[in-house]
Amino acid sequence: MKIHKDVEKILITRQAIQKAAKTIANDINKKYQNKRPIVLGILKGCIPFFNEIFLNLTCDPTMDFMIVSSYTGTRSSNIKIVADLRQNIEGRHIIIIEDIIDTGRTLSKLLSILNTRKPASIKIACMIDKPSARIKSVKVDYSGFKIPNDFVIGFGLDYNERYRGLPYVGVLKKSIYAKMDK
């Protein structure tokens, strides 16, 4: 596999991501059979991982999406709901699918908003979990990979809207983002 010139190293291959997504989908299928959960994708980064999970679900889910903005460059900043979900979630089981959970600030705010809408339950699935970066406590129910606090891109993850289409998760070279952090 050819590595992008801005990538220091490949951390997670596409095949490993697909396997993790299938495992998560199987766990969701067992727990939510006959419950018709709403699978809620947090755009934009979740799209590839969301798709890998959703195509393996047999529990008759519906899907919805939200756009939640929290990053400028490499720093998590103010959290904004840019586009809200369209379905009424009262009494429904919600499974949030995220690309990455690091500081937990985005999900913490999102959970407090969604809980006011009285869902039956909310569970969180993510492709990548970075527990060492946590600022806010967030319980991750389904996790594909736990990684160190590296700045990662690919498979939906971006740096200033670049690199989302890489077919793997890689560590971005520090020289690429070092200028932005100053």
Can you characterise this structure?
The protein is an alpha/beta fold and 182 residues long. Helices cover 23% and strands 34% of the residues. It contains four helices and nine strands; from the N terminus they run E-H-E-H-E-E-E-H-E-E-E-E-H. The strands form two sheets. It has a six-stranded mixed β-sheet, with helices on both faces. It has a three-stranded antiparallel β-sheet with strand order 1-9-8. A hairpin with a 2-residue loop joins strand 3 and strand 4 (75-83). It is globular and about 50 Å long. The N and C termini lie far apart (33 Å). The relative contact order is 0.21. The model has no long low-confidence stretch (mean pLDDT 92).
Approximate shape: globular
**pLDDT averaged residue by residue:** 92
The strand order across the widest sheet is: 4-3-2-5-6-7
Uncertain ranges: none
% residues in beta strands: 25-35%
Radius of gyration over C-alpha positions, nearest whole angstrom: 16 Å
Q: Please state the structural category.
A: alpha/beta
Query: How helical, in percent, are the residues?
Result: 10-25%
Number of β-strand runs: 9
- The first-to-last residue Cα distance is 33 Å
Number of helices: 4
Q: How many strands, which pairing sense, and closed or not: the largest β-sheet?
A: 6 strands, mixed
Element-by-element helix/strand order: EHEHEEEHEEEEH
